[in-house]
Design goal:
The chain has about 325 residues and is α/β, with parallel strands linked by helices. The protein has twelve helices and 15 strands.
């Protein structure tokens, strides 16, 4: 049994708490959060202790940390956990600053601890099947990849101001998926964007609609389409076209019942948000981390993957600002 220190008991912390508790090989040993009431409630629910960061990292019975706290705390907590010799699972991103990410990863490497970064979409059963079929040769050589990602509704402007912008906050998932699906790193990035959804987002200094084009050494291209609003649910699709055919992973809908009548045909909308859409991905992601803890495998999504995804996000921002393709 592996004892886990859970940092952060907000929305994503609660998602991981459920999966930690449900897994037969893990349990929550400590909960750490500046919101004392929330920490106490979560600790009571899972029969854990509320601890300070120092107490948790000094506890020899704690084997690993699960970092789900605010973004600006991630890098510091990663470094402290690494120096304490704890295995680390951390939600993305490591930090919004590329230089800070690089400094943090140097500490992780020097400490020689296991580190898994939470790009959960890599573990989604639909996307994983698409990747496996591609790697089996089902569609031959990849030519074009299209990733569509639209949130159901825009976030408040207050969130936008501290998010790091759409490329670092939202598109970064899709930039990582492009690398993951294609199995190679882009050599150039071109980005275009506008504020089409909510003027308050533009006033906060960001855009809410974007298109990113990636070029790969093989000659293949990827097109990422992002919007902060769909109006119909959490729109998450991937289409990969190759020399021998196409692979397509569509939306997971609220249900599979279709209504056919003389007038029209209708079906359910996509599941509403990431908590529903990626429920199975979060479970599979935690199973992978347990496999890492048991020594069965190495982390499939490392800190380097987080660094490279952030580099692509930074390149997209540079392209948007300069109206030029950025070569990597």
């Amino acid at each position: 049994m592996f004892n886990i220190a859970l940092f952060g008991c907000g929305r994503i912390g609660k998602v991981h708490a459920v999966n930690i508790d449900a897994h037969p090989m893990t349990q929550i040993r400590a909960v750490i959060d500046p919101y004392a009431e929330g920490a106490a409630q979560l600790a009571e629910k899972y029969h854990a202790d509320v601890m300070t960061t120092e107490e948790a990292l000094a506890d020899p019975d704690i084997h690993a940390v699960c970092i789900c706290s605010a973004t600006d705390t991630h890098a510091n907590l990663i470094e402290l956990a690494a120096k304490a010799g704890k295995a680390i699972f951390c939600e993305k991103p490591i930090d919004l600053s590329l230089a800070r990410v690089q400094d943090c990863l140097e500490v992780v490497e020097a400490s020689d601890v296991k580190f898994l970064l939470g790009f959960n979409r890599r573990y989604d059963p639909q996307f994983r099947t698409l990747k496996d079929l591609f790697e089996s040769g089902a569609i031959g050589k990849a030519e074009t990849l299209v990733i569509t990602s639209r949130d159901p509704s825009p976030p408040p402007a207050e969130y936008v101001r501290v998010s790091g912008g759409i490329f670092r906050d939202m598109s970064i998932h899709d930039l990582d998926m492009a690398r993951f699906i294609m199995g190679e790193d882009p050599i150039s990035v071109s980005a275009h964007g506008a504020c089409l959804v909510d003027p308050a987002i533009g006033e906060a200094g960001d855009i809410d609609s974007a298109v990113i084009v990636l070029y790969f050494p093989s000659g293949a291209m990827a097109n990422i389409i992002n919007s902060r609003r769909s109006g119909y649910g959490y729109d998450q699709r991937i289409e990969l076209h190759g020399s021998k055919g196409m692979l397509k992973a569509g939306n997971v809908r609220e249900h599979l019942v279709e209504h056919w009548s003389e007038d029209d045909c209708s079906s359910a909308k996509p599941q509403y948000f990431f908590l529903e859409r990626y429920k199975e991905a979060y479970i599979a992601e935690w199973q992978h981390f347990v496999d890492v803890l048991e020594g069965k495998t190495e982390p499939q999504c490392s800190g380097i993957d987080g660094e490279l995804a952030l580099e692509l996000a930074e390149a997209a921002l540079e392209s948007l600002e300069t109206h030029q393709t950025v070569n990597l």
